[in-house]
Amino acid sequence: MTTAKIGIVTVSDRASAGVYDDVSGKAIIETLNEYLTSPWEPVYEVIPDEQAVIESTLIKMTDEQQCSLVVTTGGTGPAKRDVTPEATEAVCDRMMPGFGELMRAESLKFVATAILSRQTAGLRGDSLIINLPGKPKSIRECLDAVFPAVPYCIDLMEGPYLECNEEVIKPFRPKK
Amino acid sequence: MTTAKIGIVTVSDRASAGVYDDVSGKAIIETLNEYLTSPWEPVYEVIPDEQAVIESTLIKMTDEQQCSLVVTTGGTGPAKRDVTPEATEAVCDRMMPGFGELMRAESLKFVATAILSRQTAGLRGDSLIINLPGKPKSIRECLDAVFPAVPYCIDLMEGPYLECNEEVIKPFRPKK
Amino acid sequence: MTTAKIGIVTVSDRASAGVYDDVSGKAIIETLNEYLTSPWEPVYEVIPDEQAVIESTLIKMTDEQQCSLVVTTGGTGPAKRDVTPEATEAVCDRMMPGFGELMRAESLKFVATAILSRQTAGLRGDSLIINLPGKPKSIRECLDAVFPAVPYCIDLMEGPYLECNEEVIKPFRPKK
């Protein structure tokens, strides 16, 4: 069974400067460990809110390190330094608007400010890139909402077959 | 009463190569026959998943053949050859994000993988172009969701007045 | 307490030519007066559906007149002269897709033609620009839906602190 490589990119000026610990990236790794029963390997980086750095990190993780999936956390709000969606769109060949729509709809059940989240997702070559919010609680809500569609998406791009702990998350694969 | 011209474009490498029959395009024609009581004429093509071919077909159907509405089926997923939304955006002057949003929200009631659908819609000159999914069951679900808004959209673009069988589909036209 | 400047732009060929009175822009000002208890000052213009004029008005209100928030009304449908979303996107650095999504979802509760609304929102420098629909009834529905997120958005852009009459509208600010 092929080991899936999954990129986790924390985008945060303060975490990358060591001002505080990266709780968000670690929360994503923990969640993926709970979800996945098939072998996977994280490729993890903490970088500042610089569009050029985000773009080059996403390119390296997809093209060189062959991550089938890359998830980012942080940099999706309206503050001046928030440019993760712009970097994502710049490196993707094709966009996946349904991920952002569903994550915002999901977060709206909890907070009215969910509409300030500019999260998107897209495809670069054989890789799926998904922006997640910055806060651990919202990360989990959003991942729980969109992850059921991720294994089949990666199948369609001929990537590794992801298997999940169905007591935690139920991936959906249509019957042929 | 003016006869409306409606383009139906099946985008599929295999159907266009004759590997299998085009069930999807025919399902759309059948559905429109059920919906519409005013006169209409289909302009129907089956083409491969080539962005340039999709674009030239959409341009021909809108500019030359004067279709007020063009619906596509197929090519909206994340697989490498799926480029129908990109071709649609390339030929449209103005986009209509509400169609894709509603179709995905509607399909999400049935399958978690609805968010993988990259469907969009847009306007080219006096024509409305709508991407539908590839599977006949999803096509009907999506058309039932968005079609009530189509006749008024075409009114606003000064196209032919579409009348529907209101036992099948209820078009909405705001009172002046 | 800093006085917030809020731009209100009515985009309408007929209202700007004096063919009829601008009910929509006035309805927005009235609604904001009901919402806000902190000091604010409207910057109000009625202009035709010309993309270049809309763009220059938005640039003037944000860059020169320092409006923290600019709301437009009109020009978001599929009719040929409707180009407000295109003008908005052209002047914004970063887009806010959640506003359009929520406004359409909200309007869909009332009318099937809500999906014809091409409304968007985005950021230009320190300013938030939001497209609203043209009809007073829809304006209020849409503002009631999205405004709870606006004060926090402006906080994040380091603009003036907006206070609301919480019996009319409840702004949401996450606890730190």
Short description:
Chain A contains seven helices and six strands, in the order βααβαβαβαββαα.
Can you put this structure into words, describing what you see?
The structure is a homotrimer of 176-residue chains. By secondary structure, chain A is an alpha/beta fold. Chain A has a single domain, classed as MoaB/Mog-like domain (Molybdenum Cofactor Biosythetic Enzyme, Chain A). The first copy, chain A, has helices at 13-16, 23-35, 51-64, 84-91, 97-108, 136-146, 150-156, and strands at residues 4-11, 40-47, 69-73, 94-95, 121-124, 127-132. In chain A, β5 and β6 (127-132) form a beta hairpin. In chain A, α2 runs parallel beside α6 (136-146), α3 (51-64) packs across α4 (84-91) and α5 (97-108) packs across α6. The radius of gyration of chain A is 15 Å and the shape is globular. The mean pLDDT of chain A is 96. Chain A binds chain B through residues 94-99, 101-102, 105, 123, 126, 128, 146, 148-149, 152-153, 156-157, 170-174, and chain B through 77-80, 82-83, 85-86, 97, 100-101, 104-105, 108, 111-118, 120.
